[in-house]
Amino acid sequence: MHERLPIGEFARRCGLSISALRFYADRGLLPPAEVDAGSGYRSYDEAQVDDAVLIRELRLLGLSLAEVASFLAAAPADRRTLVDTRVADLEHQLDLARDVARALHARLDRSETSMSTTSTITVGSHELRAAIDQVLPAVGTDPDRPMLTGVLVEARDGSLRLVATDSYRMAIRDIPAREDAGTGLRAVVAADDLRSWHARLGGTPGAAGVGVGDGEVVLTLDGSDHRTSSLPDEFPAYEAILTSDPSGQSLVADRAELLGVLERFALQGDAVLLDLDRDRLRLIRREERVELVVRHAGPAAAVALDPGFAAEAIRGAVGPEVVVEIVGSLLPVVIRSADDGTYTALLMPVRLA
To answer: Which contacts of 23-26 are long-range, i.e. CB under 8 A and separated by 24 or more positions?
Structure first.
């Protein structure tokens, strides 16, 4: 006959608390051997210690009460299978937890780096103001494409680069850095925030710092910081379309003369055909044509453009002359300043009416 153990002694031997024993008894998993009718005091048979230890271990494996009950009712061979299945499940959950932990650590590392590091580049304030004027016309306004409604600001080859595109045209301006510590500087700034910068920059030459960190873009002028939140960096990979073929199909034109013709055509609407042959550039719209003398020694080329977009691109150029690269009728037209290679505009061809 086995010894009867009071609940306190039984709890000590099986490694369970008295409250846990009462809980398992109430759920029918481990009922006491005897309950005193008068006092309600519970006692257990010494042989129940092994069952109590088994229940404790099954719970440590994470089995629910229902799963514990199934285990206790199963045959010995089935019990082994249940244990192996549970361990396999735990190993799978551990692998998933490790994957999640690695992803969380990487995210936290990026966040800490962003919060603790501000990458800054210093440029001329006058040049930055002019660059904003040059790129803003190309900013997109389509609410369904919010990634195009801002201007990409990034450090690139010792310069601060501003890029804007509405997918029909693109404007790029590189500003040589006065003090370059801008490694990793990249952010998208809302067009309205850039207009605010433009107003703050004024027309007085000086130095302006542009920094990125902690989800903010910082313009530093005269020791004061002007902060704005950066947009989500989903700006398109624009570099792929920057390569053009200047093999003899570049023309150099009088900037004011070409701009005047394009502005007039823009008021009338419709596309304009640029027909390049030797040293003549003919601009043709319906029955109207204007011929300009240009410098060009390559093969003939022709492309149709939106005259308003073309006028804005040429208006952003610097100097008395402008370079126009016509690569083909279906490829982007590249427009550059003849004496300032830091400004580039690309225009997508259009269909003639």
So the answer is: 24/52, 24/55
Q: Return all residues near 267 (Cβ < 8 A) that are at least 6 apart.
A: none
> Residue 294 carries which side chain, given as an amino acid letter?
V
CA atoms within 13 A on the CB side of 248: 7
Residue 243: pLDDT band with limits 50, 70, 90:
low
Question: Tokens standing for 77?
Answer: 């061979």
Cβ atoms of residues 126 and 173 within 8 Å? no
Q: Which residue has the higher pLDDT, 286 or 341?
A: 286
pTM, to two decimals: 0.63
Q: How far is residue 73's CA from residue 234's CA, in Å, rounded to a whole number?
A: 58
Alpha carbon of 263 to those of 154, 280, 311, 313: distances in Å? 32, 19, 6, 11
Burial 259-286 (b: 16+ CB within 10 A, else e): bebbbbbbeeeebbbbbbeeeebebbbe
* CA 209 – CA 221 distance, rounded (Å): 7
Cα separation, 196 vs 158, whole angstroms: 25
Burial (CB count within 10 angstroms: exposed 0-12, middle 13-18, buried 19+), residue 152: buried
